[in-house]
Recover the amino acids of this structure.
């Protein structure tokens, strides 16, 4: 339990990564680049903070707080050097859906004498109380998301993000982009709609927006369309000429400054009734504790938001970590964002993650470390303290247009679907299903549905894996699937089956059916047919129509049976010895009408090279399979098994006197060579024949007796 100074310092560095990189900071090489990057990123973060606040349905000024506070703690706790921490449209929309469901406009209807605003349909709304309640809900949700993220990080379950496959994330973010577009469209048009929640809510919102398109505010529409057009064009220029332009053109900042000036000079609010920001609070609000009583209503949504926010941040961080050859710690990122959200939740912020466009600006302008992030926070701080008043004439439609312009990258993911369909149809189905489910059910339920669908595809692929009969490439020890290769030859009397999946209770029936298809018969039916044939022989012998001799069975005195050839002339009904061994060729036609399937093999090899584990149901079933084949004289062998399978079989009491370890071989070729040697040594014993021992003490007809055996015994001799 002792802890050395070195060990304590390592533990401290794992919780405070800044202790790892800050002492190695190259001031002369990196500081200027970080300053330039921080200023550029800070300007973009300021505008995006204002814009994304519209998605959360809170006053735009709180977006500035959300672009400032999370950076302060991530600077000390984060392991990524390049991501820009702050609001992201998908996460903001998920927070906004919770806010609108818990604080709809209908909860704040008041008499006209006490109203501070209207909803556009004549009903008066107390907007001041509504906004205060929504800010409280958003900050409480942020606090709860932070707690969950810290718990996930402490429990070291950062691996959970691995279940969010790229097709799933692509479909989810595309659906989120569609929802963001619809939610911002009504702001660009300046039309009011009801707050819909639940299934098909975004569809209802879109329908109502289009129904009210006749009441569009022309000033807001023109400003929004111009902003979208200019932003998209300039962003395309930035992408195409990024190697020639040292610093990307901060088009959002330029458009915002120009739009604010035009709105102020033309007085668009009074002359054209344009929707403007109106008021941005100066300075900071005092920290407030969360409303713990709301936790129970938002715990489900907070879980999905915590996972999505973390997944987005880590996926972006890994891209730049790979590019610049350093590693990020997934569990530490959980803790870093958790602490950031707890801290920022106390200051009326909404959930923070990272934005792709903002991070791209920070990296492309030369950002080397999170020093650039701190400087960008300083730019946001200046906006909060000094510049907020100057942005009050800005039209909300311009901010909404900035949000829409930043969705281009997400919508371009639609073109991934044809490529996915060509490469892997299952992944394409996951993409489409997640996208459609997220649009119809909402982002939280859609993400859950997509995750379950993705896991279902994995289960189905394991439950119905690839399998096939294998054969040998002549002159080699290589075995390939018979259906795929023309010159592959199956060893004589041997069938080789490869089952490419772990074997457990869900796919054990698949193993049995693949066995039947490979060998060409059902071992249980063959055994039952042979028992029926033996009973028939018994009856015929009793009636005197058949005679048993050491050379076979005779149908009539003095006439050889057509089926059982003899080397000597048959004798009378008397037997020279008490024990006579009769060999029945089950692959020939018998002298009575019993249809017995042919068994053209004497050995079966199961290639378990792709089997990683077995459950208890699989172990019992495989043992049953061995006995079913053994009783019809087909030996079962195992090859290319994983080392851990032997220990699993031992723990499951698989081995006994009849099933031993000598049926396991390292390779398929080893098993084939062993079988050939065994057949060479046993030339005088043909395993295709069923041996029946008939005992006779007198000249009375031979009687066959049946013995009831326990289910786990299959002794055909006694039967």
């Amino acid at each position: 339990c002792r802890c050395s100074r070195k060990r304590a310092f390592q533990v401290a560095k794992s919780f405070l990564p800044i202790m790892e990189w800050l002492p190695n900071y190259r001031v002369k090489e990196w500081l200027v680049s970080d300053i330039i990057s921080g200023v550029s990123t800070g300007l973009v973060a300021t505008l995006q903070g204002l814009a994304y606040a519209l998605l959360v349905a809170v006053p735009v000024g709180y977006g500035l707080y959300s672009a400032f506070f999370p950076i302060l703690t991530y600077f000390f706790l984060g392991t990524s050097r390049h991501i820009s921490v702050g609001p992201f449209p998908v996460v903001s929309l998920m927070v906004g859906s919770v806010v609108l469901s818990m604080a709809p406009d209908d909860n704040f209807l008041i008499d006209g004498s006490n109203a501070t605003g209207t909803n556009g349909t004549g009903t008066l709304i107390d907007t001041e109380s509504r906004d205060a309640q929504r800010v409280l809900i958003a900050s409480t949700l942020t606090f709860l998301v932070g707690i969950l993220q810290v718990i996930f990080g402490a429990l070291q379950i950062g691996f959970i993000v691995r279940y969010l496959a790229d097709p799933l994330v692509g479909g989810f973010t595309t659906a989120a982009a569609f929802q963001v577009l619809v939610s911002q469209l009504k702001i660009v048009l300046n039309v009011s709609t009801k707050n819909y929640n639940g299934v098909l809510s975004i569809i209802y919102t879109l329908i109502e927006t289009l129904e009210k398109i006749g009441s569009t505010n022309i000033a807001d529409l023109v400003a929004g369309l111009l902003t979208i057009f200019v932003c998209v064009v300039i962003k395309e220029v930035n992408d195409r000429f990024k190697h020639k332009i040292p610093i990307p053109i901060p088009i959002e900042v330029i458009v915002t400054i120009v739009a604010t000036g035009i709105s102020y000079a033309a007085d668009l609010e009074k002359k054209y009734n344009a929707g403007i920001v109106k008021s941005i609070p100066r300075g900071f609000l005092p920290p407030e504790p969360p409303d713990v009583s709301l936790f129970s209503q938002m715990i489900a949504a907070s879980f999905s938001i915590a996972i999505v926010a973390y997944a987005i941040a880590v996926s972006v961080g890994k891209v730049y970590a790979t590019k610049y050859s350093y590693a990020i710690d997934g569990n530490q990122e959980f803790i870093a964002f958790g602490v950031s959200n707890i801290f920022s939740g106390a200051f009326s912020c909404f959930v923070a993650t990272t934005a792709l466009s903002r991070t791209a600006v920070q990296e492309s302008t030369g950002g080397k470390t999170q020093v650039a992030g701190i400087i960008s926070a300083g730019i946001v701080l200046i906006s909060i303290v000094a510049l907020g008043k100057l942005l009050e004439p800005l039209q909300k439609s311009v901010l909404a247009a900035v949000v829409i312009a930043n969705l281009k990258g997400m919508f371009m993911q639609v073109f991934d679907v044809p490529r996915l369909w060509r490469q892997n149809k299952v992944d394409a189905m996951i993409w489409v299903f997640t996208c459609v489910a997220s649009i119809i059910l909402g982002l939280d339920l859609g993400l859950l549905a997509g995750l379950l669908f993705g896991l279902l595809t994995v289960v189905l692929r394991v439950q119905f894996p690839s399998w096939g009969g294998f054969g040998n490439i002549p002159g080699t020890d290589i075995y390939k699937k018979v259906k795929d290769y023309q010159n592959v030859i199956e060893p004589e009397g041997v069938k080789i089956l490869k089952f490419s999946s772990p074997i457990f209770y869900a796919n054990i029936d698949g193993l049995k059916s693949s066995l039947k298809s490979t060998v060409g018969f059902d071992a249980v039916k063959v055994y039952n047919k042979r028992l029926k044939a033996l009973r028939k022989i018994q009856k015929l012998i009793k009636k005197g129509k058949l005679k048993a001799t050491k050379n076979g069975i005779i149908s009539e005195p003095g006439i050889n049976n057509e089926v059982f050839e003899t080397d000597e002339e048959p004798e009378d009904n008397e037997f020279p010895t008490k024990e006579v061994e009769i060999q029945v060729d089950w692959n020939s036609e018998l002298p009575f009408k019993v249809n017995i399937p042919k068994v053209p093999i004497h050995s079966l090899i199961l290639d378990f090279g792709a089997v990683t584990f077995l459950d208890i149901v699989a172990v019992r079933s495989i043992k049953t399979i061995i006995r079913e084949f053994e009783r019809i004289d087909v030996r079962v062998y195992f090859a290319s098994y994983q080392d851990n399978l032997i220990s699993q079989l031992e723990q499951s009491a698989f081995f006994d006197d009849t099933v031993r370890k000598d049926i396991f071989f390292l390779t398929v070729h080893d098993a084939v060579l062993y079988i050939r040697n065994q057949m060479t040594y046993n030339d005088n014993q043909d395993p295709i024949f069923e041996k029946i021992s008939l005992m006779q003490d007198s000249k009375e007809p031979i009687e066959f007796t049946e013995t009831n055996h326990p289910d786990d015994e299959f002794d055909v001799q006694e039967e």
